[in-house]
Prior knowledge:
Elements: H1 3-7, H2 14-31, H3 37-49, H4 55-74, H5 78-93, H6 100-116, H7 120-143, H8 145-149, H9 155-170, H10 177-191, H11 201-217, H12 226-252
Amino acid sequence: MATKNLKNLEVKTNKDSLLKAKLLLYKHIGAQNIEKDFEIIPSLNKLITNCPKSSEGDSLKAALYNRKAYYENNYGSNFKSYKNITKSLKLLQGLKNPNPGYVMGAYLLLSTQHVYYGNFEKAEHYMRLAENVYTKNKLEIDNNTWELNGNNHRLGVIANYRKTYMLWKLSKDSKDSLPLLNTMKLLENMHNQPDFHKEERIYYSTALNHVGDWFISYKHDSLTIQKDVSLGLKYLFKAHNLVEKKVIQELLGL
């Protein structure tokens, strides 16, 4: 349907309103990589106003607030992002069968925001909630990756990366080395699977850098032991080799 015709679609009932909002959302997802940054938030605001007052309308509105919050977070509007992801989660929690992908996405963003403010306990709390949702709804969430993100970045991969980032950023205790290594192992196992998409490599390589850096720097220099340095270098070299391999593949057109 042409954009002009879509904008002029006559709305007579809640069903029409919901259809128009859905069509505009799919148009937005399809155009998100070419839409100009300054157009995104106003575009999402218009979509939100097209959502009718119904269970389906609230579900769609929750998805839109979710997308809006992620854009705001990416561009440094942390307070606005927090307000909108909270609105999304509140709408989702009021639904009988909320979309688990958006619930998980909301928890992940809240965890990341608490990492930003240095609140380790809250960040861990929301990360656990996100992991629980994924464990119970893995197949559905993975199958809806494109609708959720507009790309091939699975939330399971993102969650393991975000947890690695959280521990790298906030953990300063040797007891946290085990969850850090376990999370990296989970991400490594995903990376070794045939369905690991090339778009997801950035999460794996960046996580390797975080883990390597943590083992080398989490202690004061005078307390750092050779074992920590060796383990840190192991992960840093893995990241380096991965990037080097990618460059060679790109040069060869593979």
